[in-house]
Amino acid sequence: MRPLETLTYEESGEIATVTLSRRGHGNRINVRMVQDLGAVCDHLEDHSQAKIVVFRGAGKVFSDGVDFADFHPDRPIDIHGFNKWEKINVRLERLPKVTVALVDGAAVGGGFQLALIADVRIATSRATFSLPEVRMGFLPGMATYRLAKYVGLGHARRIMLSGEEVTAAKALELGLIDEINDDLDAGLAACVESFGTVHPVTVQLARRLLNESFADSFENAIGHFLAAQHRAVTQTAFLETLKRAHQEEG
Amino acid sequence: MLANRPRILSVGTSTPPNGYSQQDLIDLAKVEDPRIRALFTASHIERRYFYLPESTPEGLKEETQGELLEKHLKGGLEIGSQSVERCLEPLGLGPKDIDYLACITTTGFMAPGFTAHLMKHMGFRQNCSRVDVVGMGCNAGLNGLNPVASWAMSNPGKNALMVSIEVCSAAYVFDNSMRTAIVNSLFGDGSAAALLRADNRDEPMFAPRVLGFESHIIPEAIHAMRYDWDDDSGKFSFFLDREIPYVVGQNAETPIGNLLKRFGLRRRHISHWIIHSGGKKVVDAMKYNLGITDHDVRHTQSVLRDYGNVSSGSFLFSYERLMNEGTVRRGDYGVMITMGPGSTIETALLRW
Asked: Would the CB atoms of B291 and A94 count as touching at under 8 Å?
């Protein structure tokens, strides 16, 4: 992997940890961080044996959102730049691994969006979630697509249009996060334990079908399910499950 | 190393003049069986184009194998010559400028083949080299493109033309069985032509180079798709196994992986997927096995919707839509995939 400036990346056994790390800048997301996340995706897709990917923030903040230092009021805004961020989100969301966001402190804007693309969100009691973009005159990326699926349309509209800060307790109540744990490492360990063996292909297929379930007709979805199921049951993971089941019976 | 690779300079497509909705066909063929009616109306096809026999109060008039073969030739020459004209016209070329002609068909057998008939019909030069690719099915467009590209590469500056001509309505059997209903609800008539040339003077043109091919056959599924003689109807009849779309999908990773590996690429580097519109099931299987999206198969799905499965030329209909869309940029990579009897998966890598 090429050198990272804005992130640290560690891999230990089955767990890869990506830490947003721009100390003094609130781990804000800048152009370089998007590039660094791209390099991490390359590594995760092409080389890494990790089965679980963890996102966290360095210090006492997850991420304070977008870094405006890369935007200049006297230069035209390149909409393609926004697309680069969304493409990275999609790549992270489709990894053949289980993804976990460990949130301590503020998850603002793009930080909140990163938490939304993870399969599991665990936060400390002092974590907060907010999307201030609309109040600032722009849009919070494809959180416009994802947020309502977690919390329902009513809560999503309020959270997005008001920019309110959602506390960890409230986030848990809304279904925005899965657990509050002030010991994030302990929370992660329990989460990893609960996942047991991760079958990368099956995880990827199940997640894709779930993500598509909000936007597809049942007739289309069942066709997709059958195609995905055929792929799943022809993988070694399922064949081994079958063998074990027969041994136990025999 | 890749500088001598030929480019696809132009593509033209054509169908018979008359289009039919699935309901039109149910009405014309007087389909009564509710299972067959449901099969027609549930498919993801809105319109197909055919040469249909005359409609009688009892349904469509039955055609003999001889009449079907005649339709294959006559209809094929009509749509084939149209697609050739549409392919050559934007380049300011005519039949006399063509140095190599390949015709692809599966919907009828005859000797001499379509190349000889098309040359006479359109007035090609008598010394034009030619080859007929016959009986290879829906995947055959890429089986044809491979030697056409090789010929173009070894004859720089010369014009090589590939023409797929499929008159699927000349391969229909109406016997009220589910076997033939599956086929009759899916395939449509269509022709597509592509002009290839390896010439560095074409550099200013916005046309992709064909970088390479990779084939894959699944020998244990040799009977899963077949066009063979049916004694009961006294005709050739096409058969499609129910499971084969998924088996093809499951195998697709192998040739795609091998093809991309040869060029040091990963699937994420591919901006455009040009996939044969084989049917809804096989397109779904491609999506979930290759991890590609609805957006990636938008043209594959819209071609299926608007024309049905036009067999070997189908992927060129999708290619034409992609080029007309205006989203391709210089440097983009594209992958072509066709699937058919064998069971076969053929792939090609393009770069604009």
From this structure: yes
Residue B173, C-beta contacts closer than 8 angstroms, at least 6 positions apart: B180, B183, B184, B230, B233, B235, B237
Q: Does domain A7-195 have CATH number 3.40.50.2000?
A: no
Distance CA A235, CA B33 (A): 39
Establish if B292 belongs to a structural domain.
Answer: yes
Decide if B56 is inside a domain: yes
At A5, which helix (H) or strand (E)? Answer: none
Q: Is residue B1 situated within a structural domain? A: no
Inform me whether the pLDDT recorded for B268 exceeds 90. Answer: yes
ipTM of predicted complex: 0.86
Has residue B2 got a pLDDT over 80? no
Crossing angle of the two packed helices B314-325 and B140-154, in degrees rounded to 10? 70
Residue B91 within any structural domain of the chain: yes
Give the domain range for residue B327: 209-351
- Say whether both B186 and B232 belong to one domain: no
CA distance B84 to chain A (A): 36
pLDDT in tens, A26-67: 999 999 999 999 999 999 999 999 999 999 999 999 999 999
CB contact under 8 A, A227 and B284: yes
For the sheet with A52-57, list strands across it.
A7-12, A15-20, A52-57, A98-103, A120-123, A179-180
Separation CA A102–CA A70 (nearest Å) = 26
Domain count, chain B: 2
Q: Which residues of B are catalytic?
A: 138
Taken in order A107, A108, A114, A118, the sign of the CA dihedral is positive
User: B58 has which bridge partners?
Assistant: none
- Among the partner residues A45, A205, A230, nearest to B285 by beta-carbon distance: A230
CB–CB of B246 and A45 under 8 A?
Answer: no
**β B129-134/B100-105 pair status:** parallel
DSSP run (H or E) holding B22? helix B22-28
| CB–CB contact A227 B287 (8 Å) | yes
* Cα radius of gyration rounded to whole Å, chain A: 19
- pLDDT of the residue at B297: 98
Q: What percent of chain A has pLDDT over 70?
A: 100
Domain match, B177 and B100 both: yes
- What the block records as the tokens of B30 is 């007087």
Phi, psi of A102 (to 5 degrees): -105, 110
- The dihedral of CA B282, B287, B288, B291: what is its sign? positive
**Residue A124, helix vs strand vs coil:** coil
* pLDDT of residue B1 exceeding 60: no
Chain B positions with Cβ closer than 8 Å to A: 42, 245-246, 249-250, 266, 268, 280-281, 284-285, 287-289, 291
